[in-house]
Amino acid sequence: MDTALVWFRRDLRLGDLPTLRAVAEARARALGLFVLDDRLLRSSGEARRGCLFRSLAELDEQLDGRLLVVKGDPVDVVPAVAREVAALETYVSADYGPYGRKRDAEVAERTRLVASGSPYAVAPGTVLKTDGQPYRVFTPYFRHWLEHGWEAPIGTGPATVEWLNPDEVRVRRATIPASGSSGCAAGEEAALKRWEEFCGYGLGGFSETRDRPDLDATSRMSVFLRYGNIHPRTMLHDLARCSSSGAQAYRRQLAWRDFYADILFHRPDSARGNYDRRFDHIRYDTGPDAEEAYRAWCEGRTGFPIVDAGMRQLRAEGWMHNRVRMIVASFFVKDLHLPWWRGARYFMNQLADGDLASNQHGWQWTAGSGTDASPYFRIFNPTTQGEKFDPDGEYVRRWIPELRGVRGKAVHTLRDGRPEDYPSPIVDHAHERREALARYAEIKKF
Predict the structure, then answer these.
(1) Which of 167, 323, 334, 344 is the most exposed place for a label (fewest CB within 10 A)?
(2) Over the stretch 95-129, which tens digit does the pLDDT of each residue have?
(3) CATH number, domain with residue 25
(4) Is the pLDDT of residue 182 over 80?
(5) Count of structural domains, the chain
(6) Are residues 38 and 145 both part of a single domain?
(7) How far apart are CA 361 and CA 263, in angstroms?
């Protein structure tokens, strides 16, 4: 039999994996490979690295210890391993991110890459307008995305192909690093279990409760999707059997994930810069006061309870509820007048589920510099947001022990007094709202 290299990246699973089907159809035996890429590891915080290492450990266990893990630059390492085992082809799930595309193009110059599938239900660049241009607005993209549809899950597993023993390969093998103190679940088994549990108890009411951080009402599937422990088409297949409003709302969230990946694919510059280039001219605060405000935001001591609760949850869990992500991002950009990409960079360092496309464009949606059609007047009031989505104050009290003696909704306003060990607000929201609107008005002329 010929030998094939299966290079795992953001597809750390064996079920519903197109690369395995492609190898089986080629009647080849396979060597499983993962490359510990310093460039990616350096940009990942402890929580994200921990989930990666746990996923790798489970994958290696599924393969009975036959996952070859090496350390180095994939451009050098992958062709070297392919030559060592005389692999005619290296099979991958396509990568559509800016770094991944560049890396794969360089690898393809030195060994034959065969891409099968992607981390998305509908691959970036697939859903286009009738004139062949990409969509800039979510709603028409979503309609076309639904019409296009996606492939059904495929039946693959560890026995789909014959796996080579990496001990027979003369390449220096790396040890899968310890996962550290991060407590997030990771791996294919955990992903399937979590998804089954959520479908059983949380999906039906998802549309009504998904904005409530005080409730355990979200799926927490983002980490599993980040590392491909489960494929979105597996989830969409299950959702198709549900007619509830919750299932429809959840399907829409998966479409947002594909949409942001599509935006980044067509505009790779938007990973670091404004999608709407007019925002290149907006004024941001600088200097010592701005730096102190940044530190207060990171540490959860802004004096705005819902903001501080979210930032403390992020530091403790490597995760934050999506509604709270929008609240703290709005506060960062529109109350503190700091550049969105600085907040996005902090999120990517802290989040276990940090995904470049979703993170960067979620921040730009909030900042107004992205694909959103109404950026100027959406400025979240952190107090009223807290009252609306944490109506009894349970979320705030969970993460801010200084406020556990304040009962009910009063924890958001602290009208009856502020505990001595909890800081006063670092800004006046009403004033900063007016200032944000004034700054946005300045760039309309561009």
Answers:
(1) 167
(2) 999 999 999 999 999 999 999 999 999 999 999 99
(3) 3.40.50.620
(4) no
(5) 3
(6) no
(7) 8
168 inside domain: no
In a domain, 59, yes or no: yes
Q: Give yes or no for residue 180 having a pLDDT over 90.
A: no
Residues 15 and 128 in one domain: no
Q: State the Cα–Cα distance between residues 83 and 354, nearest whole angstrom.
A: 34
Bridge partners, 32 (sequence order): 6, 67
Contact status, residue 307 vs residue 411, Cβ threshold 8 Å: no
Strands 2-7 and 113-115: unpaired
Q: Of 243, 266, 289, which marks where a domain is finished?
A: 266
> Within 10 Å of residue 320's Cβ, how many Cβ atoms?
24
89 and 21 within one domain: yes
Can you tell me the mean pLDDT for 435-441? 94
The residue from 266, 295, 319 where one domain ends is: 266
Angle in degrees, 0-180, between the axes of helices 188-201 and 232-239, rounded to the nearest 10: 20
Residue 182 lies in a domain: no
- With H, G, I as helix, E, B as strand and everything else as coil, classify residue 163: strand
Distance CA 197, CA 184 (A): 16
101 and 207 fall within a common domain: no
314 with 390, same domain: the answer is yes
Rounded CA separation 229/231 (Å): 7
Is 89 in contact with 5 (CB distance < 8 Å)? yes
Q: pLDDT tens digit string along 280-333?
A: 999 999 999 999 999 999 999 999 999 999 999 999 999 999 999 999 999 999
With bands split at pLDDT 50, 70 and 90, how would you rate the model's confidence at 400? very high
| Secondary structure string (H, E, C) spanning 89-133 | EEEECCCCCHHHHHHHHHHHCCCCEEECCCCCCCCCCCCECCCCC
Residue reference for tokens 């009252």: 387
Q: In sequence order, what are the beta bridge partners of 5? A: 31, 90
Q: Judge if 128 and 218 occupy the same domain.
A: yes
Return the ∠ at Cα 123 (arms to 120 and 124), rounded to 5°: 115
Instruction: List pLDDT tens digits, range 185-239.
Output: 889 999 999 999 999 999 999 999 999 999 999 999 999 999 999 999 999 999 9
Note the pLDDT tens digit of each residue in 29-41. Answer: 999 999 999 999 9
